[in-house]
Amino acid sequence: APAEPEPEPAAPPPPFVEAARRRHRIPVWVVPVLLFLPFWAVFYVGTLERPPEQAVGLLARGEEVFANNCAACHGADGGGGSGPQLNGGEVLLTFPDAASHVAWVLNGSPAANGTPYGDPNRPGGQHVSRGGMPSWASLGTEDVLAAVHYERVRHGGLDEAAAAEELATFEAVIDSGTELGAGMTPADVDAVLSSAG
C-alpha cells in the first residue's frame, strides 16, 4: 500500500493573529472596576459644591465695608465674637426693618449699658446693649447702607424680592445725595428711605 503522504505543515498564522496571541489579556478584576467608574463619577460630581456667588454693586461694597470695619467684632462670617451674632437670620430678628438697622449702625449702642434695643417682639426678647457698638456715621451714607444691605442679605438671609426692593431704595437714597448721620432715629431714617423708595 502506498504510504500516506505526510500532511503539509499548517501555514503560519498571519502576523496580526500572532500579535493577538502574544498580547497580555485584561485581568479579570479590571472589568468590575471599569464598570464601577461611571457610577463613581456621577456620585463624585454630586458631592461638589457650587462656588459662592460673587457679590456685585452695593452688595460687594457692603462686603468690603463689613470686612474692614465690622468683622473684627461680629466675625468674618457674622457668627459673633465680642459683638452679637448676625448670621443665621439673627440680624433680621433683631432689626426686622431696614430703618432701625441703619439707625443702629449710624448711632451705635447707647452709652448706658443695659439699654434694650431691636425688635421687642423678637423671639427670646430684645437684645440688651453692652455699650460696645461704635457709631459708624463717619463712614458716610453709601458705606453705611452698603454694610447694612450686606448684613441683611448675606447674614440675615433676606429673601430675594425684599432684597431687591431694599437695594433699589438704598440706591435711590445714595443717588439723591441725602446724607444720613449720627443722631437720626429709626423714624428719621424711615422717612428718608420712604421718600427715596
Give a brief outline of the structure.
The chain is an all-alpha fold and 197 residues long. It has 2 domains: 33 residues, no CATH class; 140 residues, Cytochrome Bc1 Complex, Chain D, domain 2 (Orthogonal Bundle), CATH 1.10.760.10. It has 8 helices and 2 strands.
What would you note in describing this structure?
This protein has 2 domains: 15-47, no CATH class; 57-196, Cytochrome c-like domain (Cytochrome Bc1 Complex, Chain D, domain 2, Orthogonal Bundle), CATH 1.10.760. It is 52% helix and 2% strand. It has helices at 15-22, 30-47, 57-74, 90-94, 98-107, 141-155, 160-176, 186-196, and strands spanning 116-117, 127-128. Strands 1-2 form a two-stranded antiparallel sheet. Helix 5 crosses helix 8 (186-196) and helix 7 packs across helix 8. It is rod-shaped, with a radius of gyration of 35 Å.
Q: State the CATH topology of the largest domain.
A: Cytochrome Bc1 Complex, Chain D, domain 2
Q: How many strands?
A: 2
**Second rung of CATH, namely the architecture of the largest domain:** Orthogonal Bundle
Instruction: Give start-end ranges of low-pLDDT stretches.
Output: none
Overall CATH class of the largest domain: Mainly Alpha
CATH superfamily grouping of the largest domain: Cytochrome c-like domain
Fold topology:
Elements (H helix, E strand, L loop, with lengths): L14 H8 L7 H18 L9 H18 L15 H5 L3 H10 L8 E2 L9 E2 L12 H15 L4 H17 L9 H11 L1
Antiparallel strand pairs: 1-2
Helix pairs in contact: 3-6, 5-6, 5-8, 6-7, 7-8
